[in-house]
UniProtKB/TrEMBL annotation:
It comes from Leptospira wolbachii serovar Codice str. CDC. It holds the Pfam family Glyco_hydro_77. GO terms for cellular component: cytoplasm. Its main location: cytoplasm. GO terms for molecular function: 4-alpha-glucanotransferase activity. Belongs to the disproportionating enzyme family. This is 4-alpha-glucanotransferase. It comes from the Bacteria. Keywords: Carbohydrate metabolism, Cytoplasm, Glycosyltransferase, Transferase. One of its GO terms (biological process) is carbohydrate metabolic process.
Length: 574
């Protein structure tokens, strides 16, 4: 599978959070070795895509979408078994649904550090060679060492001499080289193990799909080394909508595409080139952000005072031309001077009391200004996004898949369609624009991935039992096609899986927990098996562990038979 031309066929797959998939050779949580028995099981069922959530180093955090490096693989995923360090820490029985990633990582680091010390000469030699091949590791290793030393504090809070990355790297690699090379050595091990997995997948005919977060943690080695690539006084987020009246603030600095363009997007090229060592396809997280992104002052706690970046804004002269003084409306909290003599209108400004109290004549002049450049802005955003995505495609032969969920503006949806970018359709949200009803299988986008759940949603059975109108779901997924109504959770889940596999979508990739037929706790208590609940504290998420070993899961004849039949009948057994 050196070229990926054959990937664009009707396929089924599985999405996993790697630390949740424990193997009999894992150390406490799922690791790179877990991908071997997972691949064997997937191949047996007829799945030909395995999708992973990001594997980036999260430091003292938990979310893989808020990593301390855009490149580095988390040492948590290194397989001690593959290193021939046969250290066991648990019985075969999995008793708790929660991993403790910081503790597990520290135990792994302790074991590998001992191995590194005992084989220091050879290990440092291997690390030095890896460093020459992958120069991003200079900043990562220096940052990671200091990050540990200062217990995860933001790099802007470090002693002044370490805030300058060039000076810090020079000091670390001259005075503390042995410590720094240990962090490089960890990346070398992870690289070797994961790139071997890719070769194994190619041998058996399964594709591995990775994930590329668009945004980067403010406290990361990338922002530390290249603050010019980020707009540091802004944070990314999402505008208010039906799900959140005040919008979302994510804390990540906004990408400075102008600065990145001056380097011919070298940082992105390096990222994609590195990912390609491990994956055949990749998910572009929040693809809308390639066109425009909701940007908020970095210290704001709500997204109400944000705007779409980049934006022309309304020039001071355009207010004056209509006999309006922009400073008056800025003082009323309706607009904001985001660059000199250019203003943006706040979200839903027209709902504010200060707007409603204006004279009708003033409102009649002010409101049209808020829509003055919409067509020009959309044209500019579309051109900018398409340019970026085209450049991405030139950097790698991996197949890009767009995460295009949420409120996607028409011009972006049209652009992605014309570019034939593979999107994603979540069954519970894929409905008729006119009636709001579920749409039948044959009306799904062909160039998309159909899914029952994502890592950010409830599981399929939680949605089925606890969200929305149950009767309408029964009528659509069962009555409509003449199937008897389900009498158990398992029958309901089989019906949903049958639907999602039958859709006309090119790929149908399901969350691992949504394939857990016969696992009673997942079926009866799906809320306990969720990966992430957006808007809740980081440490309460991303620790999920599946309640049985992958080898035991893979040995269940009835489950395998049922899934194999569903994949075969949907003609996805590529």
């Amino acid at each position: 599978m050196g070229s990926y031309r054959n990937v664009n066929r009707r396929r089924a797959g599985v999405l996993v959070s790697l630390p949740s998939i424990v193997s009999e050779h894992s150390f406490e949580c799922g690791d790179i070795y877990s991908l071997y028995p997972l691949c064997d099981w997937a191949k047996d069922i007829g799945f030909s895509i395995i999708q992973l959530l990001p594997l980036n180093d999260t430091g003292f955090g938990y979310s893989p979408y808020s990593a301390i490096s855009a490149f580095a693989i988390d040492p948590l995923y290194i397989s001690l078994y593959k290193l021939n360090l046969n250290i066991r820490s648990r019985k075969r029985e999995i008793r708790f649904l929660e991993n403790h990633p910081l503790r597990i990582r520290n135990l792994k680091l302790e074991a590998i550090r001992k191995y590194y010390t005992e084989n220091q000469k050879e290990a440092m030699k291997e690390a030095s060679y890896f460093l020459e091949e992958h120069t991003w590791c200079y900043s990562y290793a220096a940052f990671r060492l200091l990050y540990e030393e200062f217990e995860g504090k933001g790099w802007w809070e470090w002693p002044k001499e370490y805030q300058n990355p060039n000076g810090a790297k020079e000091y670390i690699f001259s005075k503390r080289r042995e410590e720094a090379l240990f962090w490089v050595y960890l990346q070398k091990i992870a690289y070797d193990q994961l790139s071997e997995v890719k070769l194994h997948f190619e041998d058996v005919g399964v594709y591995l799909k990775g994930d590329m977060p668009i945004l980067t943690s403010r406290n990361s080695c990338d922002v530390w080394e290249h603050p010019e690539f980020f707009i540091m006084d802004l944070q990314a987020g999402a505008p208010p909508d039906d799900f959140s009246k005040t919008g979302q603030t994510w804390g990540f600095p906004v990408l400075n595409w102008e600065a990145l363009e001056k380097t011919n997007y070298a940082w992105w090229k390096d990222r994609l080139s590195y990912l390609e060592h491990f994956f055949h396809l990749y998910r572009i997280d929040h693809v809308i952000g390639m066109y425009r992104i909701w940007s908020i002052p970095k210290d704001d706690t709500t997204a109400l005072h944000g705007w779409f970046h980049p934006q022309f804004g309304i020039a001071k002269e355009e207010f004056i031309k209509d006999g309006l003084d922009p400073k008056q409306f800025e003082s009323l909290g309706l607009i904001h001077e985001f660059i000199p003599d250019h203003y943006i209108f706040y979200w839903d400004f027209w709902k504010e009391t200060s707007y409603q109290d204006l004279e009708e004549e003033t409102k009649a002049k002010l409101f049209p200004l808020s829509e003055l450049h919409i067509q020009e802005e959309e044209k500019h955003w579309r051109e900018a996004g398409e340019k970026i995505l085209e450049i991405f495609e030139s950097f790698s032969s991996m197949i890009p898949c767009a995460e295009d969920l949420g409120s996607v503006p028409g011009f972006i949806r049209d652009s992605l369609f014309e570019r034939q970018m593979i999107g994603i359709d979540v069954v519970r949200w894929t409905r008729s624009f006119t009636t709001g009803e579920f749409i039948p299988e044959e009306l799904y986008r062909e160039n998309a991935i159909s899914v029952l759940s994502t890592h950010d949603t409830s599981l399929a059975m939680d949605w089925w039992k606890n969200e929305g109108d149950k009767e309408s779901k029964l009528q659509f997924f069962f009555d409509r096609i003449g199937k008897p109504r389900p009498e158990s959770e398992e029958e309901a889940l089989i019906g949903l899986l049958n639907f999602v596999f039958q859709t006309s979508s090119l790929f149908s990739i399901q969350l691992f927990q949504d394939l857990a037929l016969g696992v009673s706790d997942v079926l009866k208590h799906p809320e306990k098996h969720r990966i992430n609940l957006p808007g809740t504290p980081d440490h309460s998420n991303w620790t999920y562990r599946f309640p049985m070993l992958i080898e035991d899961f893979a040995s269940d004849f009835q489950r395998n038979f049922t899934l194999r039949k569903l994949v075969l009948e949907s003609e996805r057994n590529s």
